[in-house]
Amino acid sequence: MDDLEAEAGDPEELSVRPYTITQGRTAPSRDDLTLITIVTTVDPPPGRSASRGLQPEHQVILRQCRGSAAVAEISAELNLPVSVTKILIDDLVARGQVTTRPPIAMAAGNESDMNLLRAVRDGLRRL
């Protein structure tokens, strides 16, 4: 094996790791997680350990989302595929350790933001 292959890591190991992290699951149980869904950590009840039974990746998500983060940001921080990240977030939602919501502008249904997006789209089409 040359130095480049050693740096890149074993391809077989890279494909097995996400499968191991998700315990064989290939999709989250919920379908409302998008790249821009905002995830926020929920404080655990007094006396309950927030990290009991969690994998290191779950713990990274909990730390990162203390100040809220988008699914895409979490995936980048973990250096994992978005599909794997969504499964991990779904685990934490099921445990009541994080909440999710669409971005504020989408949640509010802000029509002026939609008008701006349409204007940008139309301008790009004219180019």
Would you give an account of this structure?
This protein has 127 residues and is mainly alpha-helical. The chain has helices at 3-8, 11-21, 56-64, 71-78, 82-94, 104-108, 111-126; strands spanning 38-41, 69-70, 98-101. The longest helix is centred in the C-terminal third of the chain and has 16 residues, at 111-126. The chain is globular. The protein starts with a helix and ends with a helix.
Largest sheet, if any?
A: 3 strands, antiparallel
Strand content is 5-15%
First-to-last CA distance:
49 Å
Strand order of the largest sheet: 2-1-3
The SSE order reads HHEHEHHEHH
Report the radius of gyration as a whole number of Å.
18 Å
List descriptors:
three-stranded antiparallel sheet; 7 helices; disordered N terminus; mainly alpha; 127 residues; 8% strand; single chain
SSE topology sketch:
Elements: H1 3-8, H2 11-21, E1 38-41, H3 56-64, E2 69-70, H4 71-78, H5 82-94, E3 98-101, H6 104-108, H7 111-126
Antiparallel strand pairs: 1-2, 1-3
Helix pairs in contact: 3-5, 4-5
Task: Give a nutshell description of this structure.
Helix content is 54%, strand content 8%. The chain is mostly helical. A 3-stranded antiparallel β-sheet has the order 2-1-3.
